[in-house]
Amino acid sequence: MFKIDNIILMDLDGVVYFGSKVAAGACEAMAYLRNRKLECYFVTNNSTQTRRQYVSKLKKMGIAADAGHIITSAYATAGYIAKNFPGAKVYVVGEHGLKYELKRAGIALTSPENADTVVAGLDRKLDYGKISDAATVARRGRFIATNTDATFPVENGLLPGSGAGISAIACASRNPDVVIGKPNRHIFEPIETIHGHKNARYIVVGDRYETDIAFAMEIRAISVFVEDSPINKLAVEPAKFKHLYPPDYTIRTIAGLPRLLEKIV
């Protein structure tokens, strides 16, 4: 019998879908969670889209979701800055999702000349000028990263993630003051604010040892590793990360989640 205090924290890229292609069994697994009234939050380090855009993307794939149950690194970053640095003047290296969430939180976006904070996420139009401007702001002010994932999975392999661009900025200035996304606890804070008082038990489902499984360890959650992902087929040294962050359970694909949950929840 399922309990209301079991809450799933589900990764998206590489677990529910690969780029624009839904993962086999994902629709059925999500339908299972809804039918059993098991609450699920989609937690993604990807900062490029808004939460409503993710709702639309999932809907097109046949998966129902609402914006309140989608936590992106952009959304969590905006909340972190609004709480800890009200009045910050931010120069953004990133895409629409990050800029939208920062503006929505009432954070002022400005030019590098007037900024006291640089916020960096995945930017697929990153160039030398942006790196130079961001490094200049980082040297004199705050440097906040949405996440430092080296890659992210798409239909046919891996592409450079936000960590690649952030490393370039850091090389020319210094390391970020804070990283918001998984495996760090900051991305969990919006969910904890809602459910913390209920003494909830969390189950993290993801395909990266060094982010998803490490995140589960950070928040003392049960971890479920999804092994059939481009991340694990193409990533460098996956065995090293497996040793450092051993999961509680492993499933081949998201299609195996319902059977596992029948046993552990």
Describe this structure in words.
With 265 residues, the chain is an alpha/beta fold. The protein has two domains: 6-73 and 183-264, HAD superfamily/HAD-like (Rossmann fold); 85-179, HAD superfamily/HAD-like (Rossmann fold). It is 38% helix and 21% strand. The chain has eleven helices and 15 strands. The protein has helices at 26-35, 51-60, 73-84, 96-104, 128-140, 162-171, 189-195, 209-218, 230-234, 238-244, 257-264, and strands at 6-10, 17-18, 21-22, 40-44, 70-72, 89-93, 108-109, 117-120, 142-145, 151-154, 157-160, 178-179, 201-206, 222-226, 249-251. Strands 5-4-1-13-14-15 form a six-stranded parallel sheet, sandwiched between helices. A five-stranded parallel sheet has the order 7-6-8-9-12, sandwiched between helices. The protein has a two-stranded antiparallel sheet with strand order 2-3. Helix 8 (209-218) links the parallel strand 13 (201-206) and strand 14 (222-226). Helix 3 runs parallel beside helix 4 (96-104). 46% of the residues are buried.
Topology:
Elements: E1 6-10, E2 17-18, E3 21-22, H1 26-35, E4 40-44, H2 51-60, E5 70-72, H3 73-84, E6 89-93, H4 96-104, E7 108-109, E8 117-120, H5 128-140, E9 142-145, E10 151-154, E11 157-160, H6 162-171, E12 178-179, H7 189-195, E13 201-206, H8 209-218, E14 222-226, H9 230-234, H10 238-244, E15 249-251, H11 257-264
Parallel strand pairs: 1-4, 1-13, 4-5, 6-7, 6-8, 8-9, 9-12, 13-14, 14-15
Antiparallel strand pairs: 2-3, 10-11
Overall pLDDT confidence: 93
**How many discrete structural domains?**
2
What is the strand tally? 15
Q: SS-based structural class? A: alpha/beta
Percent of sequence in beta strands: 15-25%
H/E element sequence: EEEHEHEHEHEEHEEEHEHEHEHHEH
- In spatial order, strands of the major sheet run 5-4-1-13-14-15
The CATH architecture of the largest domain can be named as 3-Layer(aba) Sandwich
Which fold name fills CATH's third level, the topology of the largest domain? Answer: Rossmann fold
Question: Shape from CA axes?
Answer: globular
The amount of helix comes to 25-40%
What's the end-to-end separation, in Å? Answer: 8 Å
- CATH homologous superfamily of the largest domain - what is it? HAD superfamily/HAD-like
CATH class of the largest domain: Alpha Beta
